[in-house]
Amino acid sequence: MNQLQLAGHVVDIPGRRTYPAVVTLANGRIQSIEPAATAVPDRYILPGFIDAHVHVESAMLVPSEFARMAVVHGTTGTVSDPHEIANVCGVEGVEFMLSNGAKVPFKFCFGAPSCVPATIFETAGDSINAQAVDQLLQRPDIYYLSEMMNYPGVLHEDAGVMAKIAAAKRYGKPVDGHAPGLRGDDAARYIAAGISTDHECFTLEEALDKLQHGMHILIREGSAARNFEALAPLLDSHPQMVMFCSDDKHPDNLEEGHINVLVKRALAKGYDLYNILLAACINPVQHYRMPVGLLRVNDPADLIVVDDLQHFNVLETYINGTLVAKNGETLIPSVPITPINRFSCSPKTVADFRIAADEPTVRVKVIEALQGQLITNRISAILCSHGGNLVSDISQDVLKVAVVNRYNEAPVACGFIHHFGLKKGAIASTVAHDSHNIIAVGADDESICKAVNNLVECKGGISVVSPDGNEVMPLPVAGLMSAEDGYLTAHKYGLMDKAAKALGCRLDAPFMTLSFMALLVIPHLKLSDKGLFNGDEFVFEELAFPEE
User: Fold this and answer.
1) Whole-structure pTM value
2) Distance, CA of 406 to CA of 404 (rounded, Å)
């Protein structure tokens, strides 16, 4: 029997106490926790952190590389929705995530994607119907039904939607929600259908409304959507009903920190230590019935050691009794990756991005991107026609945005967007929720076309076009993830982010924000590969306002 003894101050979160003890690990489990008879080192032992909702793909890393970076910050498990790769590669994409994640010591708890494609108003690479969802939910390595974004389908009792929810109930697995802005009777009906969580609340009032009907609320702080400040008071008022999550985390942000950052922020704001740790460590494990240890005798030995309960610097991370990170260094080796992908479109011409205009000036509907939010506003602008073509107007910060179908040959969808701030050039990405077509924004049509064609050539990635040249970061795994070392990917992404900002972009996370401008299930105005989309009424709209 291989034994390891860890001495320090044990943080008993459910018992709301901290005491000196010796924790004995044997054969991957906790054999004993004994109060110390002598002085112990000045360090603290507690369960590892859990990200209660994350799309691993958003880090542009395969699961094994995500794990290598996350354990450094004390994360021992994630509730992971493989929705992104599923929209590209279907069930094959889910199986890729399961297979790759199983190759490293980390507690990935994947769900069965519920909305592939997310809507009928966009072109995805594949679909997963109710029968396929049922088959996935039968697997022991699938833990829940992933976020049910089609809340209108739930409210109208769509047969396919209800069949997926029924399957989750049949196998005793939770159903995740996604219902931004849903309130009152509609929220009550949505929850009553069996939806157990929501990570899309962006006001405290909305969260409280949903909590009264028994829904668990996830406090989200990702690379683009940031709701911690609005929802943090729930740590005091509803500590048993909240969890922390990132939802989407770009690689450079993951290198800087993970759930540990939220723990530190909550402590700095004066929230109760044990309430914070319930959200960070305990509640997700219990809600999703994750096979993750909670620092109890006979539990899997999944735990972390931190320097103190103010700074929470992670000294060591253990998973199944194995030391996987120490003093800021990962101890998990990289594993071989065989990419999968789905990409079939030809290079575009500048003419493909033209927006014809018969009048010298046209008043158009404009997407307003918001810092730190997935929702957008709907505004208008008057644009001048140049040679019968509406183009970006840098003086108004109204730039052309385009979505290109990457799965089939089809006309390019174009619109306009405010708040990106580009003064020159263009940026483009094949990370474009939910269907992951090519999305681009730029100061002129030529640059947009070039940025798009960079990605057609490498079959997926992110690109920056400037007067000085091109920068391209390929993402060969489904056009979403790198096949390289996670830290190298983070470094390269940081350079791409810097290049985008050098064009004048004022957003904290240009590529992350861009990726959500095609996310139709979040209001108010978005762009799919089929056209400008009204996210409130779920209908397409004309770009120009009717002539008065």
Assistant:
1) 0.95
2) 6
In sequence order, the 6+-apart residues with CB closer than 8 A to the CB of 404 are: 345, 348, 412, 413, 437, 438, 439, 440, 452, 529
Q: Under a CB-based contact definition with an 8 Å cutoff, are residues 164 and 143 in contact? A: no
Distances, alpha carbon 242 to alpha carbons 196, 270, 358, in Å:
11, 17, 54
Query: Closest Cα partner for 470 from 461, 479, 480?
Result: 461
Query: In the block, which residue shows the tokens 């046209």?
Result: 362
14 is written with which tokens?
């459910």
pLDDT of amino acid 286: 98
| Encoded tokens for 435 | 């269907």
Q: Three-class SS of residue 73? A: helix
**23/302 Cα distance (integer angstroms):** 12
Q: Which of 343, 340, 337 is nearest to 483 (CA)?
A: 337
Residue 548 has pLDDT above 60, yes or no: no
For 5-15, the pLDDT digits (tens) are: 999 999 999 99
Q: How far is Cα 293 from Cα 303, in angstroms, rounded to an integer? A: 7
Phi/psi at 541 (nearest 5 deg)?
A: -130, 155
- 3-state per-residue secondary structure call for 281-303: HHHHHHHHCCCCCCCCCCCECCE
Instruction: Convert 472-485 to b/e letters by CB count within 10 Å (16 or more is b).
Output: bbbbbbbbbbbbbe
Q: What is the pLDDT of residues 96-108, one digit of tens each?
A: 999 999 999 999 9
What is the tens place of the pLDDT at every residue in 419-428? 999 999 999 9
Residue 529: how many CB atoms within 10 A of its CB?
Answer: 25
**Extended strands (E) in 307-392:** 314-319, 322-326, 329-330, 361-368, 377-386, 389-390
Q: CB–CB of 289/168 below 8 Å?
A: no
Q: Which residue has the tokens 């929720």?
A: 433
Neighbours of 464 (CB within 10 A): 29
List the domain boundaries for the chain. Answer: 48-291, 350-540
Q: What is the 3-state secondary structure of 16-49?
A: CEEEEEEEEEECCEEEEEEECCCCCCCCEEEECE
Rounded CA gap, 526 and 518, in Å? 5
Do the Cβ atoms of 353 and 412 come closer than 8 Å? yes
Q: Which class does domain 48-291 fall in?
A: alpha beta
The answer to whether 428 and 463 are in contact (CB under 8 A) is yes
String of DSSP letters for 199-219: S---SHHHHHHHHTTT-EEEE
